[in-house]
Amino acid sequence: TLSLLYKLKKLNASRLAPVQGATPTHNDRIGLIRGDITSLQVGAIVNAANNSLLGGGGVDGAIHRAAGPSLLAECRTLNGCQTGSSKITSAYSLPCKKVIHTVGPIYDDIRPDNSERALKGCYTSSLNLAVKNGLKTIAFSGISTGIYGYPSLDAAMVACETVKNFLDRDKTIDKVVFVTFEEKDVRAYNQVLPRFFPPN
Ligand code: AR6
């Protein structure tokens, strides 16, 4: 019976998931995947950028490489972006429709409240841009959890809480996918997700 339940659950998850290019799990409105965000055929992928919006390492570098040089050309016209805010561009060679560039905080362990406020701003401003642009599915990279040093568990709490508050009020977004890359972030999301979103 257990294995049958498991198979049914998997079948159900794949039927409900509107995201191509990965197998998101969790429930019908929330996905968690470990993998390459550049391969997702979603409405928008969210890039962990810096204030210049002119590219960098980590996921930012991967997104610019996969999108091609036209992305950088468009980013040059945007005059940067403030920490905790987001800007949207075309996706060029990427399979998603748009790229939302958000600037996470460099984690400040003396003033963690400031970091938290900025990180919340990243999630809220990105979701607002998705809604404004009529995008139904959005995939977030682990903003600030790489080079910017935000502790994974704290960042996952902020991500889940902010997304939950948003989705409770918004009815236009079909699915939010959290994309993890490193094991530490997979563990953090597996711990935090069920506290905010009931699994299917
Ligand atoms: N593909 C997918 N995810 C990745 C990749 C990749 N190739 N590399 C890292 N991650 P980070 P930040 C995950 O460092 O901490 C850039 O230089 C990583 O495991 O990319 O916000 C920008 O230009 C982590 O979960 O971004 C900024 O200067 C998440 O992506 C600065 O880094 C974010 O890690 C931003 O730092």
TrEMBL record:
Transmembrane segments: none
Protein name listed in UniProt: Macro domain-containing protein
Highest taxon above the source species: Eukaryota
Residues represented out of the complete protein: 11 to 210 of 259
Domain Macro: from-to ranges: 17-197
Lineage, highest ranks first: Eukaryota, Fungi, Dikarya, Ascomycota, Pezizomycotina
Species: Pseudomassariella vexata
